[in-house]
Amino acid sequence: MSALLDVENLHIAFDTSRGQLQVVNDINFSIQAGEIFGLVGESGCGKSVTCLSILRLIPKPGGITQGRILFQGEDLLKKSSREMRRIRGNDIAMIFQDPFTSLNPVFKIGQQLFNVVRQHSTRNKTQARQHILSVLDNVGLPDVERVYNSYPHELSGGQQQRVMIAMALISEPQLIIADEPTTALDVTIQAQILRLLRALCDEHGISVLLITHDLGVVSEVCDRSAVLYAGKVVEAAATDELLAHPTHPYTQGLLAALPISSKKGSPLQAITGTVPANPGAIQGCVFASRCPHVFDACHEKHPPQFTVSDNHNAACFLLDDRIAKDNQPEAGSTYE
Amino acid sequence: MSISKLFLGKRGEKLPDDNFDAPPTERSGWHHTLYVIQRDVLAMFSVGWIVLILFCAVFAPVISPYPDQGRGRNNAEARLLPPSTNTLLGTDNLGRDMLSRLIFGARPAILSALVVVTAAVIIGTPLGAVAGYYGGWIDELIMRITDLFLAFPSLLLAMAIVSFAGPSLMNAVLALVVSWWPWYTRLVRSTTRSLRAQYFVEAARSIGVKDRVIITRHILPNTITPIIVQATIDIGTVILATTSLAFIGLGTQAPNADWGLMIEEGRQFLRQAWWYSMFPGIAIFLTVLAFNLIGDTLRDIFDPRQYR
Amino acid sequence: MQKIEYTVRRLFLSVVVLLGMTVVTFMLTRIVPSNPAALYLGNRARPEQIEAAIEELGLNDPLPEQYVRYLDDLLHGDLGESLATRRPVTLEITSRLAATGELLLVSLLIAIVVGIPLGVFSAQLHGKPADIFVRAFSIIGVSLPQFWLGLLLQLTFGLGLGLPLASRIDSSLRFTSPIQDITGFFLFDSLVTGNWVAFQDVALHLILPAVTLAAYPIGLIARMTRATMLEVMQQNYIRTAEAYGLNSRLIVYRYALKNAIIPTLTVIGLTLAYSLTGAFYVEIIFNWPGLGLFTARSFLNLDFPAIMGITLFGATGYILINLLIDLLQAYIDPRVSLS
């Protein structure tokens, strides 16, 4: 079965007054139909810009410098702006992190959703309104008539995010890209939104690309996940497998840093060092400067993806039998 | 470049490959300012023109072809002559060479503008800083007085003062200073207020730094950039004001040369000697334009929210 | 509730400022270098007449008493008598309001209709080569000396194309096609009474002065619209609109503009206030029979009562406009802080 979305060799760079900044450096991943795919990483690792690139919405001075993004087999990077407009909000819909600023403050909710319906379908006024009301109901909003006639600032954060999800669902897309949809919300609302996304996937077969920095979110709803660091995918696997057998030292570090992982009374584990400012300039592995298992080969070039097991890859020389035989710790070991 | 390229642009397109090798360059503050100015055609023109005008103002007697006429001596035979090789911009009603008159006219324009703006800044800044920093009744008091002065349209106030004190350039300048300082009080006050609310001020106060020191060493230096932008633009605006006042007879008096005065003098000869009113107007226009453009460029440079 | 509180407070403050102004103008009338009584009577007055006049005008009374009387007169709408025409200053002012008002309104309309689209257009060009031209255009608007622009237009369009150079209307029309006086606004009155001849003539007379007056406001409005549009286009909700494939005309002219208009309203109010002084010059140049021309003549003739009356009137108008702008802003934009 061919993938719904296939990202190949994606490179994204920003043109700044201090030269070109490589933000995403050769990313590859694919999403199947009917699954929730998680993209995990710290802030600045390039995950947001990756999902913007799928819809070709990267603001200047940034741009895609290389790669292909195949949606249902067609390269989105080759499409004209008119074709992209037909895809945006229609086949692929996006939900943003802060729902409050993502809605136009001077227009009513109903009006904003109505504009989307009119853009992508031929429904007349009454049909459009009916459809909107039923979608608002589907996402779990109470009193849909009132919401329809409200302004964004009259709703709570959780309600606003549900409205955004409704906007995404309006044209029955195949893929929803959700950029940290729960980060700005209360923990209780978080759970509800995540459950909603899961239900949409299970019942309607909509795939979701879920961006997050929170491993808890990933473990809750994602079928498969990829870990991003400094613009590169360092590990990708089915979520259960990833959490059970983290192979890349960065993934291991992330899991160890969770408060749950530490023994009560002992200091919290942290990954020493900081994310490199200009990862494009680094010759070897981008994680080398912070990796506890670093050795010579790590500084020569960035490691390619090695297979750990079925559908589980990691980009680490520790997995290269030829080089690291002596240094190799057991796959799946955690920090002590 | 095709016309459509002038107007179109697309988001998220691929960058051309030659961007890969752009070397990062570090520039210091002033250096960066000069660099931006130098790249902007309009800014370069503005700087050039301003330098020219300053030059005229300072060296008027040296560079004008007929300095006496510039100061006001008549030349009755040469009345209302069109531009020629002798008199490049023509002559006025009293036979005086327009070019010389224009060059001398730069003096009241620039001088009065510099005086007004400097005085307004000197008066307005401390008041604004005190009002913004201390708040409370001092703030209320200063702001009410400021509002009072701001309530009068500056022209009206200037006209009222000058018509009572007698029309002259000096009185016009004084009147303008009176109407101008409140703007700087307001500007400095709002900047000070937002700075005051920042944590570093709280921190400084908590370790016992005196208020006066905080204001002079921490707050005022941060108000310099908005003041500079505003002052630059204001120089142009004051030139408009002084020439307007001269136009209605409340500023520079004849036979002194003043761009606004010259426009008024030339009004009755509009049909037969268009150069009389037109050239001084162009001079005013280009000078004000230059200051506005530079002020705009400075604002773009100093504003952290870059849209470029 | 907060809004009402705010309104009351602003009203109160405006009254305070107005009172302050009356003090200032009162003081100015008493600081007049020459003897006000002598001025009142004219050059050929004899000393005894001047003495009598001083008594009559109450100029020997203590200042506070004079001030109270002054205030009292003001509240009754009495601004004194014009030295030049011997008619009440208030009457001189009110009879000319319509002429100046019409000029102001038409120029404001021109400024909005030209300025806002210019600003939107210029925002869209941001960063592209043509941006320079548009930036220059709006900066030109605020750099032009208005009195000179009027002359320039007179020269090119008046002498060149034969557009009328002065006055509001061809005086012969008073006999051939008189305009019925409904509001005092010639354009409106002639339109509603079907007086096409007069309407055409009035419109032609209005073009040059209104355009001259509109130049500066066009510049201000265009720049403000451009700045707010640029800021609005950076907002997240615009990104959302793009992410959902909405077409760019909808995004710019409805989603963005509706947000950008709010701060622009303030500028529009400011330009109205600015135009009060601009109208002064325009009226002089085009011999427009309005308040500005009267002001000029009063200053020229040193008609002090008229001068003070106009100053007070002008300043009051200015304050009222600013007050209206502030209140309008507070009511339209709920995000405005009312503290």
**Which two chains share the most extensive interface?**
B-C, 49 and 60 residues
Q: What is the end-to-end distance of chain C?
A: 13 Å
Order of helices and strands of chain B: HHHHHHHHHHHHH
Shape of chain C: globular
Number of helices of chain B: 13
Low-confidence stretches of chain B: 1-26
SSE series of chain C: HHHHHHHHHHHHHH
What gap, in angstroms, lies between the N and C termini of chain B?
21 Å
Task: Let me know the largest β-sheet of chain C.
Answer: none
Residue windows where pLDDT falls under 50 for at least 5 positions of chain C: none
Oligomer: heterotrimer
Q: In DSSP terms, counting alpha (H) and pi (I) runs of 4 or more, how many helices of chain C?
A: 14
Report the helical percentage of chain B: over 70%
Per-chain topology:
The complex is a heterotrimer of chains A (336), B (308) and C (339).
Chain A: E1 5-16, E2 19-31, E3 36-40, H1 47-54, E4 62-71, E5 74-75, H2 81-87, E6 92-95, H3 99-102, H4 109-120, H5 125-138, H6 144-148, H7 157-169, E7 175-179, H8 187-204, E8 207-212, H9 215-221, E9 224-229, E10 232-238, H10 239-244, H11 249-257, E11 306-309, E12 312-314, H12 321-324
Helix pairs in contact in A: 4-5, 5-7
Chain B: H1 3-7, H2 29-39, H3 41-58, H4 60-63, H5 67-71, H6 98-134, H7 136-151, H8 154-165, H9 169-196, H10 199-206, H11 211-247, H12 259-267, H13 274-302
Helix pairs in contact in B: 3-6, 3-13, 6-7, 6-9, 6-11, 7-9, 8-9, 9-11, 11-12, 11-13, 12-13
Chain C: H1 2-31, H2 36-41, H3 47-56, H4 63-75, H5 89-124, H6 131-143, H7 146-161, H8 173-176, H9 186-192, H10 196-233, H11 236-243, H12 248-286, H13 291-301, H14 304-332
Helix pairs in contact in C: 1-14, 5-6, 5-10, 5-12, 6-10, 7-10, 7-12, 9-10, 10-12, 11-12, 12-13, 12-14
